[in-house]
Amino acid sequence: MSDSVQNTRVVVVGGSHLGRHLSESFAALGAEVITASPRHGEHLDLSDEAGVERFAAKIGEVDHLVSTAAMPANGPLGDLGAEGIRRAFDAKVVGPLLLAKHLRVTRSMTFFSGFAAWRPQRHRTVMAATNGAVKFLVEALAVELAPVRVNAVSPGIVDSGVWPPEFLATAGDRALTGTVGRPDDIAQAVLYAVTNPFVTGAVLHVDGGARFA
């Protein structure tokens, strides 16, 4: 039987459209939601350990953490600089480690990977590497932090308001389902990861089978 998020405290890190959708979904289910990002909600820079520590002290104990944070560094490898690469790893790997270190989370943590790790593409090397690292991160943290559960959600292309319509018009052809995802599809997967008490160290693929297409 799944746990309920009603009357729990949930931190959602990331100011994207998807992050805001998740915050609204949790709030609609009766959770107290704390949002955090560099620009929305509580200020939080995942590359700044002192800032993460201050944030943790300010909000106190929480039941669940969900981080959608991402800072892609895409393009030909020859055009990428170390600073951009480090920012990408700060968002997907270093930042989650700092959150796990400093936040007092009592029940679950959910991080975001992405299908690019399972289907690498040209000019997406850093995206593939950072998303792939999340898989091993949640497995290791699940062992390290037990009985707190740690999982990841790995979306495919989602109509989250960031993709141009002309791209979305054909993006579904890249998935076995023939469709792109919706924010609600991702929210359902996150809710499953958060509320199922017997799931930890897992990556939930919500990509319409794009990693196989």
Q: How would you characterize this protein structure?
A:
This protein has 213 residues and is of the alpha/beta class. The protein has one domain: 3-Layer(aba) Sandwich (Rossmann fold), CATH 3.40.50. Helix content is 40%, strand content 18%. The chain has 6 helices and 7 strands, in the order E-H-E-E-H-E-H-E-H-E-H-H-E. Helix 1 (17-28) packs across helix 6, helix 2 (49-59) packs parallel to helix 3 and helix 3 packs parallel to helix 4. The longest helix is centred in the middle third of the chain and has 21 residues, at 82-102. The model has no long low-confidence stretch (mean pLDDT 96).
What's the structural blueprint in terms of helices and strands?
Elements: E1 9-13, H1 17-28, E2 32-37, E3 42-43, H2 49-59, E4 62-67, H3 82-102, E5 105-112, H4 125-145, E6 149-155, H5 165-171, H6 183-195, E7 203-206
Helix pairs in contact: 1-6, 2-3, 3-4
CATH structural class: Alpha Beta
- CATH structural fold name: Rossmann fold
Low-confidence stretches: none
Largest sheet descriptor: 7 strands, parallel
From the structure above, extract its key features.
alpha/beta, 7-stranded parallel sheet, 18% strand, 213 residues, 7 strands, single chain, 40% helix, 6 helices, Rossmann fold
